[in-house]
Amino acid sequence: MNLKLKIVLGLIMILSLNQSHAQQDPQYTDYMFNPLTVNSAYAGSRGHMSVTALHRTQWVGLDGAPQTQSFSIESPVGKNVGLGFSVVNDELGPSDEFFVDANFSYTVNLNDDSKLSFGIKGGGRILNVDFTKGNYQTPENVFQNINNKFLATIGAGIYWHSDNSYFGLSVPNFLTDEHYDEVQNAVAAERLHYYLIGGRVFDLSPTIKFKPAFLGKFVVGAPIIFDLSANVMFNDNFRLGLAYRWDDSVSGLIGFQLGPRIMLGYAYDFTTTELQNVNSGTHEIMIRFELKSKEKQLKSPRFF
Predict the structure, then answer these.
(1) Residue 101 near residue 71, CB atoms below 8 Å
(2) C-alpha distances out from residue 59 to 90, 150, 279, Å
(3) Cα separation of 210 and 233, whole Å?
(4) Integer Cα distance of 114 and 174 in angstroms
């Protein structure tokens, strides 16, 4: 059996096992600019309406590799209230999972510099798995297709933030639906995912800002996934960065602030595992549009 076939079969097994304890959530290299997808308390924290769209093509050249598209919009709607809406489409091998969530946050002013936001989210996802596609058919009828299976979502998060720092903890989905698992030949339950995010912005000079950030993903009984990143912004309009995903990849990031309302970002991941032999890396493109008042447009763009 050649390596590429082993990888494809491995993807199928990972997918099937993940169905028994929550299919792996979509991952992003530009997570530090897209926190709403993992923490509902982020909604409205930027102080104005923000719209973010992202496309990620993972492990280019490998059949069945993940592809993800996300869209989110969030805004304050009152003195202490924020609302957000997010849509994510995630494809992996023979599966296609579509997420739709509404987010609500309430913010408490701790002092003149910092705030604490509490968030909840609700929605659902639709899961399709079609093993008749591509090379996923097997001589034995081991796998059963899943057609438009709806799984509800209820999550929550807390998010502390100041003018130059942030820290958050969240559980995107508390529900642990039981379902039949074809691999284990038993009824299994999904497991809770915990997300820990944080970052800080340092002014190195009047024209240079430095931002280290991290994202930790924890699932009981599974290895911890930890992302570290460091970005440097020059003159409030050009950004360069590096990132490392533990035992997975290293990444280069670049971003452009095209005026006060539009930011473009690109990230490239180089795989550090054996998968590097059968793929040419991962590409991620992001655009963010911000609806600011004229007064806020005169201020420097916020780095998170």
Answers:
(1) no
(2) 14, 28, 5
(3) 6
(4) 28
pLDDT single digits (tens) 222-243: 788 899 999 999 999 999 999 9
Give dist(CA 185, CA 248) in Å, integer: 30
Rounded to 10 degrees, the C-alpha dihedral 123/51/218/199 comes to: -150
Token pair of 152 as six digits: 């509800």
Compute CA 201 distance to the chain's CA centroid, rounded to the nearest angstrom.
21
Cα Rg for the chain, rounded, in angstroms? Answer: 20
Cα distances (angstroms) measured from residue 295 to each of 206, 228, 259: 21, 34, 14
pTM > 0.90: yes or no: no
Side chain identity, residue 130: D
Sign of the Cα pseudo-torsion (215, 270, 250, 11, in order)? positive
Phi first, then psi: give them for residue 3, nearest 5 degrees: -65, -40
Residue type, 23: Q
pLDDT at residue 297 above 70?
no
Measured distance CA(279)–CA(285) in Å, rounded: 18
